[in-house]
Write a structure and sequence with these properties.
4 copies of one chain form a homotetramer. Chain A contains 2 helices and 5 strands; from the N terminus they run βαββββα. The first copy, chain A, is an alpha+beta fold. Chain A has a 5-stranded antiparallel beta sheet. At the A-C interface, loops of A face loops of C.
């Protein structure tokens, strides 16, 4: 978005150093909407992907069999610049808040090589028992892994 | 989500009367994810659909030719209850804030017949000139139509 | 597509009377791609939706618990005319072939009120045991319901 | 799919050597459907992506400005084995038929490192004039590039 003034109080895109874990995600032809850029909905699909891929990679989630699964109870995004197929996207991930049974992930989406995020958002997972779907406390292993992804001084998006 | 206590300060789902304009949206097989319910990303697709369908119906937007188009600069959602294919969804729409070139829509998604929203979210559009993609003031016609969709007393989601 | 000649041997769109069961499906903003019309991939999502909604409605499938589930082993589509958001689509369904453990559905997608299909396609389901994922014979109930959706004289698409 | 017999006449998955150009495509959480595997519709999104990414890379298509654009008039797929998030997919591409204004692409989707395709499909593009949307002959440059992607002896899928 144009026209930013020096004393502007609008939110500003975060930098790459504010994120801990990066994944390269490819875009798809149909991600671009009638305006020729990545549709806003796709950003959330990339958030969901970045979060769950990291959980699976860390051994914290097996979508088919783990006792606890993470359900999204809140999410949000601020859009700063256009992204679009065919360019790939780098998704940066950090953890912003670790609750009793919940965790807040923050995600920055970057054009390849860019230092400033094109979009920043968050996803809050409540971990629930797979069968009852009632909140279940985070395990010690989860807390440990989540703590490794926190970033001191990160402004929550 | 379970376990709500009487004095709980968690956000609560809004009622149907807090929304002005309703559309029935069908769900799709692939909307359901590995957990067997509507994936969180799909909610945003329904928001986007409810907003743009209303704009088009009101004559405020022609995706191919209107001088101004609405670009999403921020959005968010709180998820209260599961939705899922094959059940259709009712999307309620209201307008919460009318700026110089921007507008905040709030959307509630309801199971057919339910009084309480299963999810509530918002989308902020900045209207821009189609070619330059720079913010352009809302037209008088837009302001008039947007005003008709405001709901006194609506708690902003 | 333009330029069809009288003696042309290209496939031609089928008529509404060649389908048995109709469902109205809503379209979404993000269904339209960079060319401003319904992306070709979405047609398959509507096929999948029409087929599974009918199976569920007939009591032949419960996605979470039925002993047999239908897996897609082949599909295809011919595209005759553009469709696009915000217009809803009518999906016509018929059954073209009933095998030992498989069934071929044929689907026509129609603009509201149109007599000629905008697209026609097929989906072949092999019904498998949910746990082993090995082919399992169609039940008598399935055969009965499938037979009701056949259309004598339908040209297979 | 199980139970293949030696003399079986069912179609068999092709090998990697039958494809010319390979791209690695990442999968997404929401690609997996209620059965926990990549939904059949997503395969077509990967086809569309592999084809258009190659066209753009070769300089044969600029989605926003090139005089000719490729519209899908037919497509199809055979599904041999499950794919699923979080595993990436390799898409192999070849050209099977070059017409006056049309081209048939064939695509194989492979699990990372696998020699046999998990799915094989095709997409037929008719190239049309962007404005009139009427068929326009392939350019000499297109014919040259398409010819480089043909594979002698490839069984058309």
């Amino acid at each position: 978005m144009p026209d930013s003034q020096p004393n502007d109080d609008r939110p500003r895109p975060g930098a790459r150093r504010m994120y801990r874990h990066f994944q390269v995600l490819t875009t798809r032809w149909m991600d671009n909407d009638a305006y020729g850029h990545l549709n806003n909905v796709i950003y959330y699909s990339l958030f969901d992907t970045a979060v769950n891929a990291w959980l699976i990679e860390q051994g914290l989630l097996d979508p088919e069999s783990s006792a606890q699964i993470g359900l999204v109870v809140e999410s949000g995004c601020r859009f700063y610049a256009e992204l679009g197929f065919p360019r790939p996207i780098e998704a940066g991930l950090r953890i912003a808040r670790i609750g009793k049974s919940s965790v807040r992930y923050e995600i920055g989406l970057f054009s390849a090589g860019a230092d400033q995020a094109a979009a920043e958002g968050f996803v809050v997972h409540v971990f629930v028992d797979r069968a009852s779907r009632r909140p279940a406390p985070l395990t010690a292993e989860m807390r440990l892994r989540f703590a490794e992804l926190t970033v001191p001084g990160a402004d929550n998006v």
